[in-house]
Design a protein that fits this description.
single chain, about 450 residues, alpha/beta, six-stranded parallel beta sheet, 12 strands, about 15% strand
Length: about 450
């Protein structure tokens, strides 16, 4: 089913799905805004567990403030970007930024403590809406416990939204796991085009809002000359962008591999400069600053948090090397040819090999069902292999062009249906309406009806 949905980008959106979207965008519904009207404010409790979720959360809060007829008050867990929108995080977001299987075990005690703190804080906050963003392990446990607590005390539960659907499409038996999701999630905000229809078929209300990276691509073009001037990189230098990840566990595993890769390229690339993008995570920042002191290559560190600087760096770069994640989509849509790499604990890698049902790990390849972006995974992720892939990208114009050409198709696939449709019947002419993913997500949250869907 996944491949059928992906392989035809011009496939018309099913009528039943469009009717679902119209229903959720109705301004006359019994919705979160009606609950907020009784209190004169809308209280929204949000939880993000990693840097990409923090970015999504910050944009969502901004959109909710713009679209809500009542003042927005936020609580929960987030990072520096959500803090700029007024969120005072219960604890550092990094405390729950853990992924993997074996990698999770040393952190279980702290995660249990943080989960209890989050549940208690959410109950005390008395939210009209709870929004969890990605990080499904922590998020789903939180929503289940909240639902149980409200039922135990006989109180009406707030609406539960989960932003970024779990990657059910990647795993054997993944779709079956959606069957019980509606017990504690009222609505899923999906960022990939094929997810919402599958969720709805499993009884989980869902809306495809578009991929959040689209918002950067729409706003930022990148200024290569400005980046070189600001960081003192002369025009003849070949810039290689490196994005090692946003979680400490993946950065400590990947950065040593990338260091050896860059060493192998020094004699083959004209005046190379390595630009490392440092995620806004204090543990990651400290580790990278300490580690690069031992690098023999010229290195420039770019602090996270500024999309303008990031895309300026992309524009100035010849090629990029990144750890699998949101960065691969950012690089692809920015038309910067890249190589995607990934390593994990050997037990985690074994489980992935056994349970995964798709051959790719980066979203552009998954969407296109084609290895447009070279991937070096698990045991194939070696400095020698990565260096060879990067050299081919830098010197083979055909391979570079294939990535760049594919980016437009990926962008179209990731655009929400409202951006592709004639929207007169959806009241898109309102001054406050736009087709950005965060705006569509905010409208869904504000005007969603608490109803269950069944195919």
């Amino acid at each position: 089913m996944l491949l059928k949905l992906m392989q035809n980008p011009n496939r018309r959106t099913p009528l039943f799905f469009l009717s679902t979207v119209r229903k959720y965008f109705s301004t006359s519904s019994q919705a979160a805004v009606d609950l907020a009207s009784k209190d004169g404010e809308m209280r929204i409790f949000l939880v993000a567990g990693e840097v990409s979720g923090d970015v999504i959360g910050s944009r969502l809060i901004a959109a909710l403030k713009k679209l809500s007829p009542y003042p927005i008050r936020v609580g929960g867990v987030g990072g520096s970007m959500m803090a700029k929108q007024g969120l005072k995080s219960l604890f550092p977001m990094e405390d729950i930024a853990v992924m993997g299987i074996w990698e999770l075990l040393p952190h279980l005690k702290k995660l249990r403590v943080r989960l209890k703190e989050t549940v208690d804080a959410a109950i005390s906050f008395r939210p009209h809406v709870v929004v969890t963003i990605d990080s499904k392990g922590f998020s789903f446990r939180l929503l289940k416990q909240l639902k149980a607590r409200y039922c135990q005390h006989g109180h009406n539960a707030p609406l539960h939204f989960h932003y970024v659907a779990p990657s059910f499409w990647a795993w054997k038996g993944g779709e079956e796991r959606l069957n019980g999701l509606s017990k504690f999630v009222d609505h899923v905000l999906c960022i990939l085009p094929f997810e919402a229809e599958v969720c709805v078929s499993r009884g989980v209300p869902a809306t495809f809002v578009g991929h959040p990276v689209l918002e950067d691509i729409q706003e930022l073009k990148g200024n290569a000359d400005l980046f070189r001037r600001e960081y003192g990189i002369y025009s003849g230098s070949t810039i290689i962008t490196v994005l090692p990840g946003s979680r400490l566990q993946e950065v400590t595993r990947m950065l040593p591999i990338y260091s050896k890769t860059i060493d192998l390229l020094k004699d083959s690339v004209k005046d190379p400069t390595t630009v490392i993008h440092v995620a806004p995570n204090q543990h990651v920042e400290n580790y990278i600053k300490k580690t690069v002191n031992d690098w023999t290559a010229d290195v420039v560190l770019v602090p996270g948090g500024s999309s303008h600087t990031k895309y300026d760096a992309f524009s100035a770069s010849a090629v990029a090397l990144c750890t699998s994640g949101t960065a691969a989509m950012e690089l692809h849509l920015a038309r910067l040819p890249c190589v995607v790499a990934y390593r994990a604990h050997f037990l985690t890698e074994w489980v992935i090999r056994y349970k995964a049902k798709i051959p790719y790990i980066s979203l552009p390849n998954i969407l296109l069902n084609s290895p447009v972006i070279p991937e070096a995974l698990f045991r194939e992720c070696t400095p020698t292999g990565l260096a060879a892939l990067l050299m081919e990208l830098m010197h083979n114009d055909g391979v570079r062009a294939e990535q760049i050409f594919a980016a437009e198709k990926v962008r179209q696939l990731l655009s929400p249906p409202l951006a592709r449709a004639a929207c007169g019947d959806l009241d898109c002419k309102e001054p406050s309406f736009d087709n950005s993913p965060s705006s569509i997500a905010a409208r869904t949250i504000l005007f969603h009806r608490s109803e269950k869907l069944y195919a």
